[in-house]
Design goal:
alpha+beta; Pdz3 Domain; 2-enoyl-CoA Hydratase, Chain A, domain 1; 6-stranded antiparallel beta sheet; 6-stranded mixed beta sheet; 10 helices
Length: 393
């Protein structure tokens, strides 16, 4: 027993020395052990820093706010404009916005570096009554800047209970103003359609504003009604459509593509998934033109890009937004959440609309056209109608 005691003591000292060395040189540890120990050490460092600031800063500092600001900075450090940290309050508002329990002011908007760009204002809405117009920017909500916030986070800040007030800071050119609106329940139809005539050719002009739940069903019904009334060509207007459900986008594209690939997705920690056309499509003999602009993004780019790649439609308009990634909401234990980019999507040709220099991102139209908002005519639609009539002959 006495001979074994010095040996055990020597072994203990050796293990302690090894522990101290490896603690300072974690690269020599096995990966699982290193991740566990170093991860805990990083958390300890953050707690230590918060303790020091909370206890010693010359003014009172809220620990919870410091932690939220830290998480915001961590996500911002990713350099991804589509990822964001949602505070508990913002996450609760986002959930209410997503569930449809809250009301808004009657706008369709798209993401902009300074906030949100107004793409469409619904008639008889609070936004219309306030004089907000397409092309203007919303840069703050209730004094909170929207710069750098993903569009679905920024739009959630505008919504709220019907009857409550919200202040929007609106920029038009060099003019900046604050509009105080009262939220209301505004019905935002996913689909609007009308039957037009050019010579003897009947054309259905169908506008799809968002890929919300059931949007493909509304689109299918609008197409069927128009075909029953003799439509021989289709203009699918996706201008200002900022996206929505991937599944709805696949189902909508399937209305024009009978079979084959629509889109595929993959991420570093996500399995590759392929989405093929499903269901019944309209006859291929019917020519299709898709109208796009800088507000056409995400799921809307999937539909337009799939139809372009499969040579099912002519794309008319302006270069699209160029969002080739998708996000997932990951709730955190503190009540907040991460809105994190977890993968990319790829069109049938294999291209990703978010790749390349900023000037080359998005879908390039086959035929360029631009509407001039200050005129009564829709110049881009005129080009689309001319193209689809030519294809119908």
């Amino acid at each position: 027993m006495t001979a074994a005691r010095p040996l055990r003591l020597l072994l203990l000292v050796a293990l302690l020395a090894a522990g101290i060395y490896l603690g300072g040189h974690p690269q020599w540890l096995p990966a699982p052990v290193r991740d566990l120990l170093v991860g805990e050490r990083d958390a300890d460092v953050l707690d230590e820093a918060l303790d020091v600031i909370e206890g010693s800063f010359y003014e009172p500092a809220s620990r919870s706010k410091l932690l939220e600001d830290s998480l915001t900075a961590v996500v911002k450090g990713l350099g991804d404009r589509f990822s964001a940290y949602l505070s508990p309050a913002d996450f609760a508002r986002f959930n209410d916005h997503s569930s449809g329990r809250f009301s808004g002011v009657g706008l369709i908007v798209s993401e902009h570096p300074r906030g949100l760009e107004v793409r469409r204002v619904f008639e008889r809405s609070p936004a219309a009554a306030a004089g907000i117009a397409p092309g203007e920017l919303i840069v703050a909500v209730d004094g909170r800047s929207l710069a750098g916030k993903p569009s679905r986070v920024a739009t959630a800040l505008i919504t709220g209970q019907a009857g409550t007030a919200v202040a929007l800071t609106v920029v038009a050119g060099r003019r900046r103003r604050v509009e105080r609106l009262r939220r209301a329940r505004v019905r935002v139809p996913a689909v609007r359609s009308r039957l037009l005539r050019s010579g003897r050719t009947k054309i259905v002009d169908v506008e799809l504003s968002t890929f919300s739940e059931g949007a493909h069903g509304e689109l299918r019904a609008a197409l069927d009604r128009a075909l029953d009334r003799g439509a021989r060509a289709v203009v699918l207007d996706l201008r200002g459509n900022g996206g929505g459900s991937l599944e709805e986008a696949v189902l909508a594209a399937s209305l024009f593509i009978a079979r084959g690939r629509i889109v595929s997705t993959r991420g570093r920690a996500r399995e590759r998934r392929n989405y093929d056309a499903v269901g019944r499509s309209i006859p291929r003999r019917l020519p299709v033109v898709v109208l796009v602009d800088g507000g056409t993004a995400s799921a809307a780019e999937i539909v337009a890009g799939a139809l372009q790649d499969r040579r099912r439609a002519t794309i008319v308009g302006e270069r699209t937004f160029g969002k080739g990634v998708y996000q997932e909401i990951v709730p955190l234990s503190g009540g907040g959440a991460l809105d994190l980019t977890v993968g990319q999507y790829f069109l049938p040709s294999g291209r990703n609309v978010g790749d390349g220099p900023a000037s080359e991102r998005g879908l390039a139209p086959d035929v360029s056209a631009q509407d001039r908002p200050r005129t009564r005519r829709d110049e881009a639609l005129d080009v689309a109608l001319r193209e689809v009539v030519r294809a119908a002959r």
